[in-house]
Design a protein that fits this description.
The complex is a heterodimer of chains A (243) and B (443).
Chain A lengths: L2 E5 L4 H12 L3 E6 L6 H11 L3 E5 L8 H6 L7 E4 L7 H6 L1 H29 L3 E5 L12 H21 L5 E6 L2 E2 L14 E2 L1 H14 L3 E3 L3 H11 L2 H4 L5
Parallel strand pairs in A: 1-2, 1-4, 2-3, 4-5, 5-6, 6-9, 7-8
Helix pairs in contact in A: 1-2, 1-7, 5-6
Chain B lengths: L1 E5 L6 E8 L3 H10 L4 E3 L13 E4 L6 E5 L4 E5 L4 H8 L4 E2 L11 H6 L7 H4 L6 E7 L5 E4 L5 H7 L8 E8 L1 E2 L4 E9 L2 H10 L5 E6 L11 E8 L7 H5 L10 E2 L11 H14 L4 E7 H5 L5 E2 L10 E9 L3 H14 L6 E6 L12 E9 L4 H14 L3 E2 L9 H7 L3 H11 L8 H6 L4
InterPro entries (chain A): NAD(P)-bd_dom_sf, SDR_fam
GO molecular function (chain A): oxidoreductase activity
Keywords (chain A): Oxidoreductase
């Protein structure tokens, strides 16, 4: 049975992804900062799908633990899904370096640190799939969330470079741009229904796209064109917009 | 998030601020920090019991925590729905101890409504099968309760409509089955007298209920089809069914994609439907072996069937009268058939004894039927309430969206005791729904 590793397994999206892969008889490794909080999910996956699920402590910003974390996993995963992230508060982050730094490290530095380890291992064995959950916010910086957006922009660029590097080794790297997703992270926001995906839709799309070796996945197709248009707006006009 | 919410009857519909959490710790701090909200499952109660200006959706709190396949004990978080549970337990040879007529309800909802099924006269309501459960009470602490510990909390939570706290974890016993099939018997009854006699004759069957045609008068008054059943044994299956006795063939689902205009349901169409339904059983008695789904959940096969009643929604009216109050049942049925407002087939069932604090079931006849919301309906239902009160009966809170507070307080003998316990665990109306405000269930 193949194994999938979920980094940041506590998020709503990660729960849905874990269930989708478990339903296809993948064993699942759940990694997160609060390992004890992942135990109900571990039980749930084993009982529902009859697969083996394990729980592992993982802190995205404890960089020097990452190599050891990966080396001590009971099985080297065939697929690694990097699903952690932190939306944070843009206004607070503009004044408070603690918040800004937390956003940057959770979304970018931490991801680079752990995926470097995973990528090197996959390159050696010439197999593996890396899935990075990035964000449409990283496509162009906007005043309403450019600190989160810039971290995700960095992550998107990292994934694209990694894809380029690992192509020749037969390792596939997929970037996911979920758009709006109905999760705890966004439950205080009112989201447009047509552009908002349920975590289960994201999970299903990710699962299928992994099978098809898609490079960049937009979960709700309009996002692809919305972001294309947003990227095409000349900077002279863009800077005057209230986005 | 601001959300438009309604329960299955689509009446009332309100805008609610909804929150949802996946971790117990988050739920506890939410409870401690908020008030005037109500926990909510899959919205399959019919009325306003789980509606509030502020609601706590439990649908994401949906992990299965343990399943003892040898002893048949399941432990789940409150947001798991019965359809998910069936998918897991049936292939392992277990079934729900009690199930209502839809499998799209959560475990938390099953407890809060203390749901009953076709086996109530034999096996009681859901509360009779719970080993223990966790409830987050008003101060944000989590209390484990059971028939042996914190019994006041336990009995006020079973059927307590979420007013004692947020149900988070439930452990309950399952029922051993050999197959996923039901050996069913359908018997046509020409009128109410006959169906009541048949209920008595077939009372040793585990499952029983009757579809009743409320619009008939004269000799056919109360004509029905009694349906009784038992879990089928392997020996009772045909060759095809026997190949995989615990698996059901998958079937496509139908759906009602939008609200139908309400004029579609009128006395004529309802009469025609009932005539066809009654007439489709050509023989007096039919015996066959059917998958459990159409037996327990005939309407679940049509997703969003509630839209058939139109945008204004409908009220499902369910009452119970004790066995010696058959005249009350006749009086109510007569009022309905005279009015000509009856819905599609209504459900008649005989409950067995149940000793609980605030749950709906008591030994007697229970009738459930739908009425599309229209002018004059509430005044008519108030008249029916009077008859129910007169004959010592009561209404099911999970279906209720409109009864007057005095009807509740007069008809539930333990109402005062219940309200006292609620006050202990829910001071200052921390947990509050439209229904609890309407019926003054919280003080």
């Amino acid at each position: 049975m193949p194994t999938v590793l979920l980094l940041g397994a506590g998020s709503d999206m990660a729960v849905a992804i874990a269930r989708r892969f478990a339903a296809a008889q993948y064993n699942v490794q759940l990694a997160g900062r609060q390992a004890a909080a992942l135990q109900p999910l571990q039980q749930d996956l084993q009982i529902r799908y009859g697969i083996a699920a394990t729980v592992h402590h993982f802190d995205a910003t404890a960089y020097d633990t990452h190599a050891a974390f990966y080396a001590t996993l009971p099985v080297q995963p065939d697929i690694t899904v990097c699903a952690f992230g932190y939306l944070g508060d843009q206004e607070q982050a503009q004044h408070d370096w603690q918040e800004a730094s937390r956003i940057l490290h959770s979304n970018f530095t931490g991801a680079v640190s752990i995926l470097n380890v995973v990528a090197n291992a996959y390159e050696v064995k010439k197999a593996g799939v890396i899935v990075g959950i990035s964000s449409v916010a990283g496509e162009r910086g906007r005043q309403s969330n450019y600190i989160y957006g810039s971290a995700k922009a960095g992550f998107t660029a990292y994934l694209s470079g990694l894809r380029n590097r690992l192509f020749r080794s037969g390792v596939h790297v997929m970037s996911v741009q979920p758009g709006f997703v109905n999760t705890r992270m966004t439950q205080h926001l009112t989201l447009p229904p047509l552009l908002t995906a349920q975590p289960e839709q994201v999970a299903n799309a990710v699962f299928k796209a992994v099978q098809r070796k898609k490079n960049v996945l937009f979960v709700k197709w309009p996002w692809k064109y919305i972001m294309l248009i947003i990227k095409l707006i000349p900077e002279a006009i863009f800077k005057k917009l209230k986005l | 998030m601001q959300k438009r919410l309604a329960n299955w009857g689509n009446y009332p519909a309100i805008t609610s601020e909804e929150s949802a959490y996946t971790q117990e710790e988050q739920l506890r701090s939410f409870v401690a920090a908020n008030h005037g909200f109500i926990a909510r499952g899959n919205g399959r109660c019919y009325g306003d019991a789980s509606l509030g200006k502020h609601s706590l959706s439990m649908l994401k709190y949906d992990k299965i925590l343990s399943f003892d396949t040898a002893a048949g004990v399941l432990e789940t978080q409150a947001g798991v729905t019965l359809d998910q549970i069936l998918d897991i337990i049936v292939p392992k040879g277990w079934f729900l101890p009690v199930t209502p007529g839809t499998k799209f309800i959560t475990v938390g909802g099953a407890v809060a409504s203390d749901v009953h099924g076709k086996n109530h006269h034999m096996e009681g309501a859901f509360s009779g099968h719970i080993t223990e459960m966790d409830v987050i009470i008003g101060d944000g602490t989590m209390v484990t309760c059971s028939p042996d510990q914190h019994t006041d909390l336990y009995w006020a939570t079973c059927g307590g409509m979420g007013l004692t706290g947020v149900i988070t974890r439930v452990k309950f016993g399952l029922k051993k089955i050999e197959t996923a099939y039901i050996k069913q018997k359908q018997i046509k009854a020409r009128n109410l007298e006959e169906v009541i006699r048949l209920f008595d004759e077939y009372k040793h069957y585990t499952y029983s209920m009757a579809w009743i045609d409320c619009l008939q008068k004269g000799d056919s008054f109360g004509r029905s089809i009694l349906i009784v059943g038992e879990h089928a044994t392997k020996a009772e299956l045909n060759d095809k069914q026997g190949q995989a006795p615990l698996l059901l063939p998958s079937k496509p689902r139908l759906t009602v994609p939008f609200n139908l205009p309400s004029f579609i349901l009128n006395t004529f169409t309802v009469k025609a439907f009932n005539w066809l339904y009654y007439g489709k059983n050509f023989k007096k008695e039919i015996n066959n072996v059917v998958p459990y789904e159409p037996f327990f959940y005939p309407l679940d096969a049509i997703l969003h069937w509630n839209r058939g009643y139109g945008k204004a929604g409908f009220i499902q009216y369910q009452f119970v009268l004790s066995l010696d109050q058959k005249e009350g049942l006749i009086a109510i049925l007569r009022r309905i058939s005279e009015k000509g407002w009856g819905s599609f087939l209504a459900v008649l069932k005989v409950f067995g004894q149940q000793d609980s604090l605030i749950s709906f079931p008591m030994e007697g006849y229970t009738l459930a039927l739908d009425f599309p919301v229209r002018k004059g309906l509430f005044a008519f239902l108030d008249e029916l309430d009077e008859i129910v009160l007169q004959y010592g009966g009561r209404l099911y809170l999970s279906k209720d969206a409109r009864m007057k507070q005095e009807v509740f307080w007069k008809s539930y003998p333990n109402a005062e005791r219940f309200a006292e316990i609620v006050k202990t665990y829910n001071p200052g109306k921390r947990f509050e729904s439209l229904q609890s405000e309407r019926l003054l269930l919280t003080k």
